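input
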Amino acid sequence: MFKNVMVYRIGEGFAPTLADVQAALMPVEFVACGASQEKSVGWVPPRGEAHGPLVESVAGQWILKLMIESKAVPGNVVRRKVDERIAEIEAATGRKPGKKEKRDLMDDVLLSLLPQAFERQSTVLVWMDLENRRLVLNAGSQGKADEVMSALMNVMGGLSVSLIQTVTSPQAAMTQWLLARTADEWPADLTVERETVLKSTGEDAASVRFTRHHLANDDVRKHVLEGKLPTQLALSWDGRVAFVLTETLQLKKLQFLDGVMDESGTDKKEGRFDADVALSTGLLGPLIDSLIEALGGEMELGAAAADQALPKPLRTVLNSTVATAAAGTDDEDPPF
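output
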């Protein structure tokens, strides 16, 4: 149900009812792209049933789903058609179109090709935990997350959110865990697994990836002490959930370990959706709590992140890295 996790803090004072949320989402229910429409964004029933509610409540946890549909026309096709139009104009008039005319030609060509383009759909699951004032997105990129947050803000008055910030930055903590000599130095309930990406902050931006590799060794520690800092680190929590932690506090490649999903079949009266939601949220909530605790707790708004745990040779390098580690990049390139 959740493959990627981005966690936001819901601001004080936001306390809608389930009916309020349903009413807010209905005017922006998803409608497929029209013939000449490039993109359509809207809410769909998370349970997957036609004409079902747009927000579901399972064990007090609210689940929403945003649908994003887009049509992509290959850029080389657009450019070829534009070049053909330009050649026709030059042959007929003896002049070359100017920049504005070329832009207009590109718009016209794109509009004419859109009805022939195939639609591409993607969905983002949204989990609202109002009791703990957390909003969790199943989003793998910051661009996709921003799109969901914009869609939410447009319909839910009074909603304010901020990305959760921790006292110790994820990169500082991951650095310390990789430098640990024994597993006793890792935080409770978290285990360092066999995958990491280390990047240097120099001009060459050298990087090294370890996959299916025992990380508690001198080779890895040597790379870290030379200035290569972790941007991703595979972890497991309580032997039940595996994930990759990033320097921006995203959880990627999330998977429940063997036997965990079998727990969802214990209540035969529940549907598959209800069981999956209950199990997923029931595990991810404590996981997020444990991870935040391992990173020194949640940072108060306006406070500076701590890096006391870092070895002294690394402090200067890390501070410059964390300052620029902000915005994740979108994983989708434009068609042209």
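quick obs: The two ends are 32 Å apart (CA to CA).
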